[in-house]
Predict the structure.
Amino acid sequence: IADDVRPGSAVVTLAIGVTASAIQSALPPDVDAVRAMPNLAVEMRRAVTGLSPGPGAREEGIRRVRELFGLLGAVVEVPDERLDVLSMVSGAGPAYVCFLIEEFTAAARCLGFEDETARTLVDETFHGTMALLDAPGRTASSLLSEIASEGSATERAIAALEQAAVSEHAEHAVRAAIGRAEELRGALTGARES
C-alpha cells in the first residue's frame, strides 16, 4: 500500500509478529507506522491497547492513533520489543479472568450450589468487584486489604492462595504465553524469509 498512502498519514498495524520497524521501513518517510494490540474488551470500549510507534514516527501521527484507540479504552505506549509482552498480559488477560471465573464457579458447584446459582455467585461477584475498582482512588491492593482484614475468613482464603503460589503460577502462565508468541513470530519471520 506504500504507493497509495497519502503523505502525513499514519498506518496502524494489528499484525502479530510484524514489528512497527518492519512496517515503517516499507512506507515512505512522511508516513507514520504505529503497531497496536487491543484486547477483546474493545467490544465494550473497555480495552487495553498497547501502542508501539515505528522508528521516526512523528508525534502528530502517534497522537492521532493514541486518541483513536483512547475512544475504546486505556492506551499504553511501549517500545516495539515490549509489545508482545504487554499483549500477553492484557491481550490474553480476558482469558485469565475467564479461567478464574470458571475455576471459582466449579468450586461453588463442588460446595453444593446448582450450576445457575454457582454462575450467578461468581459472575456477579466479578462484575461487582470491577465496579468497586472503578471508584476513584481505589486499587486492587486497597480493596484486598479492606476485605481480607486481619483474622477474617477471607484472610485465610488469601493465605491459602498464596501458599498455593498463585502469583508464581500467574507469572509462569504469562511467560508461557510470551514463549508461544515468540515461537509464532519466529515461524512467521522464517516463512517470510523463505
